[in-house]
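Sequence design from tokenized structure. All designs in this work follow the same two-part layout: the structure record, then the generated sequence. An example of the structure record is given first.
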């Protein structure tokens, strides 16, 4: 492949070049490997989580969120959760004053599972919110009660 034919991947809402634009116009490079690519701020939250397979409900995994945002979560789990599958996700949100925890239900897809320090780190993208789960989660994230996750390494 000729060097002028190679183009880096473009993320975001880039406008496609038109016929009037010069052919040698620079294209923004993709984020380097390991760089933060999330669009929304993640927050630290250690909530109990359960993942139940959508298809048959047989596969069940328990874990704890490490961080989350409105579009997904990182969940620590003792068991390997198969990636590229959809799960019903139940998040147990602690309440002040010893009140019964609030449980919200979502549906999401596991995009990766990585073993790190004897714990599986499960990356989940939320696909659908059940009931008022989205409203509740947005309110908690906007409340300022959760600490933002720093992306500095």
């Amino acid at each position: 492949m000729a060097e002028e034919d190679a183009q880096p991947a473009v993320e975001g809402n880039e406008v496609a070049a038109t016929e009037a634009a010069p052919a040698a116009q620079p294209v923004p490079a993709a984020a380097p490997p390991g760089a933060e690519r999330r669009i929304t701020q993640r927050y630290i939250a250690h909530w109990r989580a359960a993942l139940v397979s959508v298809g048959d409900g047989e596969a069940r995994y328990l874990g704890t969120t490490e961080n989350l945002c409105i579009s997904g979560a990182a969940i620590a789990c003792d068991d390997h959760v198969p990636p590229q599958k959809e799960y019903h996700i139940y998040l147990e949100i602690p309440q002040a004053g010893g009140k019964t925890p609030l449980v919200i239900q979502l549906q999401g897809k596991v995009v990766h599972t990585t073993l790190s320090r004897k714990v599986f780190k499960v990356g989940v993208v939320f696909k659908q919110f059940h009931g008022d789960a989205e409203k509740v989660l947005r309110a908690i994230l906007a409340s300022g009660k959760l600490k933002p996750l720093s992306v500095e390494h």
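The beta strands are 43-44, 48-53, 60-69, 72-77, 86-93, 102-116, 119-129. We note this feature because it recurs in several other targets discussed in the main text.
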